[in-house]
Amino acid sequence: MNNQSKKVPLLVTAVIISVIVLVLIVSFWVSSMHFPRNQDYFQYKNELKIPPLLLDRNSDPNTADFVLDVQSGETVFFDGRQTMTLGYNGSYLGPVIRFKKGENVNIHVNNQLDVSTTVHWHGLVVDGEQDGGPHQGIQPGDSWSPAFTVDQPAATLWYHPHLKGDTADQVYYGLAGLIYIDDENSEKLNLPKEYGINDIPLIVQDRRFNADGSFDYRTSTMGVVAGDTIIINGTVNPYLNVNKEHVRFRILNASNSQNVDISLSNGVDFQQIASDGGFLEVPLTRRSIFLSPGERAEVVIDFSRSDLDKISLMSGNQPVMDINLTTASAELTEIPDSLTTIAPINSIENLSIRVFELQSMGISGTINGKFFDMNRIDEEVTLNESEIWIIRNTGGMMRSGGHPFHVHGTQFQILSRNGQTPPLHERGFKDTVYVNTGEEVAMLVQFTHPGIFMYHCHILEHEDNGMMGQFRVS
Ligand SMILES: [Cu+2]
């Protein structure tokens, strides 16, 4: 072969490679083309979606039967553009499931996806087999029917997938919903309780959209890129009309990895009445509420004395929802001074202590130096025995930061934060606690139900990439 005939295939190869590189560059550019936030239609306000209440199919007042279909679908968030999403009994998020304390509950979960999933009842105290963790995978087309008795006080909990390695994706695309537990105390207390009128669920999530409407979920080994849009109950730019009265908001940070700090645009105080596991002893005056992923808070805001027509709900310094104040309500309620009784913590001497060290590196991390292993039980715990768990965030590399530490199968009490008595809003029952870099939180835990449970970081990408362990209660 002479030189001339060698040059032709070389030239062809060079052209092909250039074309491939160009196509890659253009497709990367198109896929990363971010939605122009200054577009008019992105500014349109949308009425806040209120998730439906899930129908109890059993007429027996002591037994409830619920059906959840896990589905894929399309959701319009703005401008008629379709976004591929996942949902329970719908295309995005899921209905609110209401339990009564003492009730026997059966839930029939049908996985209509073409991938496996699980449904974990976050904050619910049930046996390990009913918990919906990674061991309760539901194959595509299969069903799972957990049954349990509700054995804890009134609270706002939630449900979401917990499949090993795939939790973050499934939650980001829409799988999450709220659980309300009611009890005699919550029914008796003079608090706003008209669902969707003055008792409003707020599922807060950060998201980012591409120009075609699809989600722009950005992760890399370095970590997760925060979304630039806060959506509430799956609503972009929401507004809510309420009467000038006391309004209760049940706020869940259902973001994968981002913290939120909720306040009001006029800077007025409001009352926090509950944390993760239920009511605080007394309402607490707060100006803002910090929630890491997985945490909840219930607040009551008094709009009855407001002479404004509109107040914005803020996340940090960004307005995330307009609250339009309409007519004054004829009935003025006062919120109760006392909400519940939390038994004082008895002597904690002689309790056994376990230490959990959190370390992260970009999108992955370890607990006590170990990546999650389904085939390894990390801790053996005795049923009904109180213990002290110490959670230490020792930092790490590449965007290491705070970690929301979540424990399944219990509601715990915080004993101390960095050696100090915890702040008032952390003195109720919790299932998720934020531990910032260099911080140490001690908590009192007790497990009243047997089985295998998880403890993990609730930054879902951290959870998927190693920051999880499992313990057996027996
Ligand atoms: Cu983490």
Distinct helical segment count: 5
> What structural category arises from helix and sheet content?
mainly beta
The outline comes out as globular
* CATH architecture call of the largest domain: Sandwich
Radius of gyration: 24 Å
CATH level 4 superfamily of the largest domain: Cupredoxins -  blue copper proteins
User: Hetero groups bound?
Assistant: copper (II) ion
Considering the chains and any ligands shown, give keywords for the structure.
mainly beta, 10% helix, six-stranded mixed sheet, 41% strand, Immunoglobulin-like, 5 helices, single chain, binds copper (II) ion, globular, 474 residues
Would you give an account of this structure?
The chain is globular, with a radius of gyration of 24 Å. The chain has a six-stranded mixed β-sheet with strand order 1-15-23-22-17-20, with no helix packed on it. The chain is built from five helices and 33 strands. 10% of the residues lie in helices and 41% in strands. The mean pLDDT is 92. The protein is mainly beta and 474 residues long. It folds into three domains: 46-188, Sandwich (Immunoglobulin-like); 199-328, Cupredoxins -  blue copper proteins (Immunoglobulin-like, Sandwich), CATH 2.60.40.420; 352-473, Sandwich (Immunoglobulin-like). Bound molecules: copper (II) ion (CU). Copper (II) ion binds next to loops.
Short overview:
The chain is mostly beta strands and 474 residues long. It has five helices and 33 strands. The model has no long low-confidence stretch (mean pLDDT 92).
